[in-house]
Amino acid sequence: MNVKQLIEKNHDYIISMRREFHRHPELSCQEERTSRRIREELDKMGIFNTVVGNRNVVGIINPGAEGKHIAIRGDSDALLVTEETGLPFASENPGVMHACGHDGHAAILLGIGKSLQEIADQLPGSVFLCFQIAEEIGKGADEIVAYLKENGGVDQVISTHLMSWLPLGGITIPDGPVASGFCLFNIKVKGTGGHGSRPHLAVNPLMPASEILLKIAAIPTNRHNAFDTCVVSPCAINGGNKSNIIPETAEIIGSIRSFKYGDAQKIMDVMKT
């Protein structure tokens, strides 16, 4: 039986696991049930597995084998979104939903493991199945990378991401970067609080915060190489909660995304100036 036939054989299994994960979504660093179920499934397949760091799970097909070492990675955390699809397998966790495809990623990786384990004796090396937690908040990956290094490293890492805009059943393998790296930023502006009727006696932090927001959003256009794609996305500005009180502080939070290694740090350096 070839790999294609094995995947087709496990087609229904992958769908059932995806729907189970979708029904029971968990937020970043809270993937207790998800990680437990992943380990239970790997145990059923006879695949050695271990918890790495917080709740990351790494399964190994042919541990210690000579030859190539390949890592295949999938994430498993959900988002703070209320599901209103009405699907029979809709989220049972109020306010939390798999809205970014990570239920599918975890299920696909289990399906890959199930299929490859059946032909483990034909594989010219080891396969590391890396189930990453907390991808949405930029955690989990470092722990897995450290684990892989401690265990001899790998020759190649393979990953995928579900894309809703592709035709059903379609795949794309572009040349060059596919997904960006990112980092988060948090800017606090301190002023002097006061009453709205006496703004001259206060220092309103919302004014400079607004100017800062506009300037940092324009950094990729005005201060960065146009051939190296990156974006600065201010995603929230918070300050005060009363219509007649000037707040003491204002806060801007957001993210920086870039394809080229080191570009995010360059943007951060510009922001600090």
Automatic annotation (TrEMBL):
An example molecular function term from Gene Ontology annotations: hydrolase activity
Domain of life: Bacteria
Coiled-coil annotated spans: none
Annotated Pfam families: Peptidase_M20
SUPFAM superfamilies (UniProt xref): Bacterial exopeptidase dimerisation domain, Zn-dependent exopeptidases
InterPro entries noted in UniProt: Amidohydrolase, Bact_exopeptidase_dim_dom, Peptidase_M20
NCBIfam families cross-referenced by the UniProt entry: amidohydrolases
PANTHER family per the UniProt record, alphabetical: METALLOPEPTIDASE, PUTATIVE (AFU_ORTHOLOGUE AFUA_6G09600)-RELATED (PTHR11014:SF63), PEPTIDASE M20 FAMILY MEMBER (PTHR11014)
Protein name: Amidohydrolase
